[in-house]
Amino acid sequence: MNKNEHKKLITDMGSSSKAMIERFLSPKGNAYMLLQLFSSNPEVERDELFCSLKELEKNGKKPDPEHYTAVYMEPLPGYRKPNLLERLYEKFNIGIPEDFRGHSMSVSDVVAVKENGKITCYYCDNVGFVEIPGFFAGNKKDMFTRTVL
After folding, report:
1. What is the DSSP letter of 19?
2. What is the mean pLDDT of the chain?
3. How many distinct structural domains can be found in the chain?
4. Does 141 reside within a domain?
């Protein structure tokens, strides 16, 4: 992929991510959303992509919502916690949906779960998932609707 193709892909992902996040944040229904690191900044991908929380902390970092793009969203399935995150991991590694445009779920991905109006985010770590409080803090919509250049 040349530089222009990469730039177009990032712009396209940013546009679809914005619409997906707006649907996720709407007050209707319970849903989950998968977010993956996808940046035009090669340093972000080099320093954060596929890194465990321990590695991020060692480097003085934490998951930054500005570096993530929404890649999939749908209503919450019938199964619930504690199996939800493990089932989603299986889904995005074994039974990957045809309309999914990201990479298989891996370390550094974030799953946002909206249930009864409350959003909880989980970091896919090297073993299991870790809740990351405050990931969706502040103005939730603006946090993810930036224009990707």
Report:
1. H
2. 80
3. 1
4. no
Per-residue model confidence as pLDDT tens digits over 12-59: 444 677 888 888 888 788 999 999 998 777 788 788 889 999 999 999
Q: Write the CB contacts of 113 (distance below 8 Å, at least 6 apart in sequence).
A: 31, 32, 76, 84, 119, 120, 121, 122
Residue 147 lies in a domain: no
pLDDT for the residue 79: 66
Between CA 77 and CA 107 the distance in angstroms is 22
Which range marks the domain in which residue 106 is found?
Answer: 3-136
The answer to whether residue 52 is domain-embedded is yes
Q: What is the CA radius of gyration of the chain?
A: 15
pTM for this structure? 0.81
pLDDT at 148 over 60: no
- DSSP H or E run through 72: strand 68-75
Any domain includes 144: no
Instruction: Tell me how far apart the alpha carbons of residues 112 and 85 are, in angstroms, rounded to a whole number.
Output: 10
Segment holding 34, helix H or strand E = strand 31-37
Reported as half-sphere exposure (CB side, CA atoms, 13 A), residue 142 has a value of 3
What average pLDDT score do residues 56-66 get? 91
64 backbone dihedrals φ, ψ, rounded to 5°: -110, 115
